[in-house]
Amino acid sequence: MAWSREALEIAAVFKPRAYFIFSFDMVPIAQMEQNENSALLKRFGLSGGPENFSPVVVSVRLNPSSPYRVEARDGSLVLEGAGRAIGNVELQRSPDYYKRTLANGKPIMDIARRSSGATSST
Predict the structure, then answer these.
(1) DSSP code string of the chain
(2) Nearby residues of 81 by Cβ (< 8 Å), 6 or more positions away
């Protein structure tokens, strides 16, 4: 999926994704001109929309040329397909400990990521 610049700005305050060994993204990080890889998490919640989806967790696979795009609307995020709203996007907040570092200066979030699929709305 692709993300608009405004959607990336909203997502920047939420839990970031990790690139440890490999990525499932559809393009190399070097081709992400908006630095999507550093601003997004690996999954989000999707609910509501015209079809009134029950909450579901969606894995993020970045592709700037995808027809599926997350857009900002009135301070919230919406997943669109072909310019039509699909559902509301909910992102997981970062735990407070993500801001801490170890004695050696390494960020705690680099070694102690929480993998819960729980989400909080924007």
Answers:
(1) -EE-HHHHHHHTTSPPP--SS----SS-GGG-TT-HHHH--SEEEEEETTTTEEEEEEE----TT-SEEEEEETTEEEEEETTEEEEEEEEPPPPGGGG-B-TTS-BGGGT--------EE-
(2) 67, 68, 69
What pLDDT digit, counting tens, does each position of 10-61 carry? 887 775 555 444 455 656 666 666 666 555 667 789 999 998 989 999 887 7
Which amino acid is it at 18? A
Residues 6+ apart with CB under 8 A from 49: 78, 79, 85, 86, 87, 88
